[in-house]
Amino acid sequence: MGEPQPAHVAPAPTAAGGASQDGCGDTPPLLSVILVGQRSLAAQRRGKFVAGSGAHPARMAPDLAAALIRDYTAPGELVFDPLAGIGTTLVEAVRTGRNALGMEFEPGWVALARANIDLARRHGSTGHARILRGDATQLPRGIPGDLRGQVSLVLTSPPYGRTMHGRVEHGRGPHTRFHNTYSHHAHSGGPQAANLAHRSRAALIDGITAVLAGCIPLLKPDGLIAVVARPWRRDHFLIDLPGQTIQAGLAAGLTLLASRRAVHGAIRDGRLLPHHTFWHPNVAPVGRRKGTPVSLIQHDDIAILARERIETRS
Amino acid sequence: MKTADHHDHDPSIQPTQPPDPLALSELIAAGDIDVVPGDPPVPISVWRVAGVDAAAGHSSADALTPRMAALLVGSYTSPGDTVVSIGGDPALAGAAGAGGRTYLSVDDPGDLAGLDHVAGTVALIVLPWPPPDRPGPMSRESLTRMFRVCRRLMRRDGCTIVALAELPADETYIEHSGALIPAAQRAGLGWLQHIVAITAPIAGQRVTWRTAPADPATLRAAADVAVHIDLLVFAVRRGRHG
What we know:
The structure holds 2 protein chains of 2 kinds.
Chain A (H helix, E strand, L loop, with lengths): L7 E2 L20 E2 L1 E3 L5 H5 L16 H11 L5 E4 L6 H8 L3 E6 L2 H16 L6 E5 L17 E6 L10 E3 L6 E3 L22 H15 L3 E11 L2 E3 L2 E3 L1 H11 L3 E9 L2 E3 L2 E3 L9 H7 L9 E8 L8
Helix pairs in contact in A: 2-3, 3-4, 5-6
Chain B lengths: L23 H6 L5 E2 L5 E2 L2 E3 L17 H11 L5 E5 L3 H9 L3 E5 L15 E8 L10 H14 E11 L8 H14 L2 E10 L3 E2 L2 E4 L14 E2 L2 E9 L6
Parallel strand pairs in B: 3-8, 4-5, 4-6, 6-7
Antiparallel strand pairs in B: 1-2, 7-12, 8-12, 9-10
């Protein structure tokens, strides 16, 4: 064994809290853990999203989106989110100088995403973004031909199980779930098969497979797909949505390059301080009082997929 | 299975019960575990387990550190309980011994069946993964058989924890998790928790790492330096699932 190597220290967290830096070139290797919880979700979102955006039940943490965009793209490159929701990934892309394209099925979310992109532009973002209304399971249908083969990074998060949806309101007594539907039409109509969030679990995985397969023609030759997912709990046990999402990617012809973890707790004096999330914060205490050693989930799984194994990347 | 601090500070009540050095309250006080405060305090799904020697350049994502062993033993067992692992692990043995637990180990997953004398009494089974010295990946049937043995050994409220460490370059997380989780389910175990154990030191607001730089020729694009171990916690399914 040789001498211990000099310390490699991850680059200082950016304003977004990621452990990465812009651009390519001679940068340190990525770490399997990304710390994205230095700021509360409210602080991460403050001023970036128009009123009404908070109604979406499962928005990606902005600092996580920004960290992944910095890790896997350079300024000027194109980021695509096929399940764009209210446009968190698009907003973070343009705010970091990337261009972005998004697709969303629900017209209400499309309108909000468009407004959020406009807000980023008014704030001086240099990237350009476009949100399209469409069914991502039909991709690449709906994407302009000149954008095919142009995407450096597909960044998205699949819908979660419906029973776990909902943002939790704090500070008014018992936790109250609200904002728990993906569709503005969910109360007036039946489940919409075209909306992934309303599918059964098996159909959801089929839908995710179709979405990922449809993204492949959009990728540049060295383009990557980053999928952020979290398991959900049913009958006390976890359903492996992250694993099933990766399996969907493999079924779509993709290769898994890396499995990373995003940690949402804030580091203070060397300790991790948890943030409240939309995940039911009262599940874990109740479970522990009943004798089940459950923990509060403070991380997301990130799967990095590619069309094929890439040996070198220029 | 311990889920709260059973440590009693009043010696007049339980004079023969020494305090548990691995009680949750002790782990919290020592800064070894992070929790949501409350009654009871609830640990979070992310552990900081960098070894004390990590700063000297020996950080590794493929071995249990003393803190990780203490968290495993302290979080999932009580004094007097039995802990089993594949491969004798000094850190695990040390934590179990210091905490008044009984520690047993076997060399190979196939040897677990030889522990029938403790069947139904084991509070914690730790499976470092992939198992050392294996000739190749275990078949679906072998994995299911292994978890069935684990279930037979486990106390009704016991846990089996797979510690999925840094993998060889030609293996992926999903190859293992995608086989382990369904195999455990076929054996009557449910996936209770996924814990991310960060093996590199955290300095300031950053994860740092000290390791010999990987050979650039073998570093794949988009690959990363492993600074965590995935802990997959399984418990016995009961009721209509049991």
